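Last lecture ended with a question: if I hand you only a sequence, what can you say about the shape of the protein? Today we answer it with a concrete record. The protein is Putative dehydrogenase. Below, first the input exactly as provided, then the predicted structure, then a couple of comments.
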Amino acid sequence: MAALRAGLLGVGMMGRHHARVLRDIDGVELVAIADPGGDPHGVAGELTVLPDIESLIAVGIDIAVVAVPTRFHEDAALKLAAAGVHTLVEKPIAETVHAGQRMVDAFESAGLVGAVGHIERFNPALQQLRQRIAAGDLGEVFQIATRRQGPFPSRIADVGVGKDLGSHDIDLTAWVAQSTYSTVFAQTALKSGREYEDMIIASGRLANGIIVNHVVNWLSPMKERVTIVTGETGTFVADTSTGDLTLYANGTFPLEWESVTAFRGVSEGDVTRFAFPKREPLRVEHEAFRDAVLGLPSEIVTMQQGQFTLAVVEGVIESARTGQSVSF
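The predicted structure:
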């Protein structure tokens, strides 16, 4: 079977990695690259860097990856849908929920695969975490807390930290818990002199009753990517920077310290760091997208799912603005 002809729109900080992976996976051939800003990282190779989405489509492609700033997602995606091209759009799906819905509708009406690049779903630590929670390793899950913070990325100029970083945590939390958000309440701060928020504290509840908490900012000199899931039998800690998953089990030994035994809680037990294969998340994401286009079993992040994540992020921003919780 002939390889899928792939086009890539945008070869910036994320696009350069898409180019590398598209060249490396089976069943896909990168045939065209477009970026009005040229090729700052020198990834085009023998390919001519085309100026826009129209010229990319004109080459004749089966699939496309859109890795340009968020405000350009809708225009590119709608043109690709009209041309019959299956498309993976980097997260967030769009700048606004209205734009995102137009994208969802366009791909659904055209019968095309539309996916969103919420790459954390393909992180090996989170995939292991989801499987183990589904298998009942924690019993009932009580809480999911995430921390995603680090220095400000100067390349991000069109959205705040909620849509750029917070969308990761909202999507992965709903996916790991296999539930949707019910309510959120949030506070934000603007400390870097930009028009968008650069710090968020958000809490909420999922439809299945799990309480959630997210700490997100661009104001920390340290980089942190942690997901903590607490349940009946212990706590999982997933570090998506390293792909590590650790279980802190509840203790099973009776306590002899009287002042501690009076507290009806848990005690420290065994700590286990799991060993499992750690494949590059971006490669796994592209393989899933390829398989979906080929009609094979696949778990992509659909545009509809990406749209709901964006709606929750906008709910977080609205809650911070009004001081009221937002329900979905």
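Comments.
1. The domain at 121-277+310-327 is CATH 3.30.360.10 (Dihydrodipicolinate Reductase; domain 2).
2. The chain has a mean pLDDT of 95.
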